[in-house]
UniProtKB/TrEMBL annotation:
Keywords: Decarboxylase, Lyase, NAD. Transmembrane segments: none annotated. Residues 4-244 form the NAD-dependent epimerase/dehydratase domain. The lineage of its organism: Bacteria, Bacillati, Actinomycetota, Actinomycetes, Streptosporangiales. The keyword rRNA processing does not apply. Signal peptide: none annotated. It comes from Murinocardiopsis flavida. This is UDP-glucose 4-epimerase. Pfam families: Epimerase (PF01370). GO terms for cellular component: cytoplasm. GO terms for molecular function: NAD+ binding; UDP-glucuronate decarboxylase activity. InterPro entries: Epimerase_deHydtase, NAD(P)-bd_dom_sf, UXS-like.
């Protein structure tokens, strides 16, 4: 495989690069290093099968040139992280809408296989028990910038889907549910790395709202092989596939778990949503994936427990690995 990975310097993207290189593939990363970091790819520097191109997916010509020399595209570049998106709505929209259009268009023009990383955010406020891929989207007002990410990623899926059905582009859409792992930073939101950093520093753990909201965290090490396998599975083309974990926990419960696993003396501090994100923020109360379709298509079965996931982050920080500065997905 000669793969282009957009957003390859990000948290999920860099793990994908590691995986592809370890499996004998060639990889070119296109990343603007806005939230990604070169340090995430340090282990691949000098590897003849690997190249990092610093540039933006908004550069149509660059995108087309790189994809023209490849047979596979993993499109992970996006403006991500709730804090980031709320702070920079216009930039986020541009990247997530026009950038994706450029990448899909080039993949279709050059006959490359195409996978796009989407997100459980597309379900919006639908808090059903076990969201299946055909579940309704319940989004707030488009005038609230908080929803711009969900709206843009929904359109990304649609663009990919339409290219897939109309041009025959082999196209995989994965919806990642709160994926966590080493190299992920809490700088732009992302609750698990935030809590781990706070716990290790002995600082208060900032639980937003009541902490009764629930999430199901998945391991990057479970979803990367699944993403690659889906591209080898034609039955997975032109549909969206949920990928995530299976243990649900409240955010308050997560804070307690992180404190216990780190042996931290941090206290839990409740922060109002308006103090955390600004006025008018709406949180999702619950987001639980049904991963039955991924199981049916590729035998997907997440193997890492929440404790494994938290521990892998703690160990990564403790051994003094390159400081993770990245948040993607
Ligand atoms: N959250 C929190 N404290 C933080 C960061 C996030 O309580 O320091 C909450 C956030 O309000 C949400 C959950 O943790 O209910 C997951 O947030 P994240 O940004 O990781 O993902 P998403 O909101 O996209 O599920």
């Amino acid at each position: 495989m000669k793969a282009v990975v957009t957003g390859g310097a990000g948290f999920i993207g860099s793990h994908l690069c590691d995986y592809l290189i370890a499996h004998g593939h060639q990889v070119v990363v296109l990343d603007d290093l806005s939230t990604g970091s070169e340090s995430n790819l340090e282990q691949l520097r000098g590897n003849p099968a690997f190249e990092l191109v610093k540039g933006t997916i908004l550069d149509k010509r660059l995108v087309s040139d790189l994809i023209g020399e490849s047979d596979t595209v993993f499109h992970l570049a996006a403006a991500v992280g709730v804090h980031n998106i709320v702070d920079k709505p216009l930039e986020s929209l541009r990247t997530n809408l026009h950038g994706t259009e450029n990448v899909v268009e080039a993949a279709a023009a050059h006959g490359a296989r195409f996978a796009v990383a989407s997100t459980s955010e597309v379900y919006g406020k639908n808090d059903s028990d076990g969201l299946t891929e055909d579940a309704d989207r319940i989004l707030g007002s488009p005038l609230k910038s908080r929803w711009s990410y969900a709206a843009a990623k929904g359109l990304d899926e649609l663009v990919a889907y339409v290219y897939g059905t109309e041009t025959g582009l082999p196209c995989v859409i994965t919806r990642f549910f709160n994926i966590v792992g080493p190299r992920q930073t809490g700088r732009y939101g992302m609750v698990v790395p935030r809590f781990v950093s706070q716990a290790l520093a002995g600082e208060p753990i900032t639980v937003y709202g009541t902490g009764d909201q629930r999430r199901c965290f998945g391991s990057v090490f479970d979803v990367i092989p699944a993403l690659v396998r889906l591209l080898d599975t034609p039955e997975a083309y032109n549909t969206a596939v949920n990928l995530g974990g299976k243990e649900e926990i409240s955010i308050r419960g997560l804070a307690d778990r992180v404190i216990e696993l780190t042996g931290s003396s941090s206290e839990v501090r409740f922060v109002s949503y308006s103090d955390a994100y600004g006025a008018g923020y709406e949180d999702m109360q619950r987001r639980m994936p049904d991963t039955g379709l991924a199981r049916e298509l590729i035998g997907y079965e997440p193997t890492r427990t929440l404790d494994d996931i938290i521990t892998s982050l703690v160990e990564h920080r403790r051994v003094g690995a390159p400081h993770p500065r990245v948040a993607v997905g």
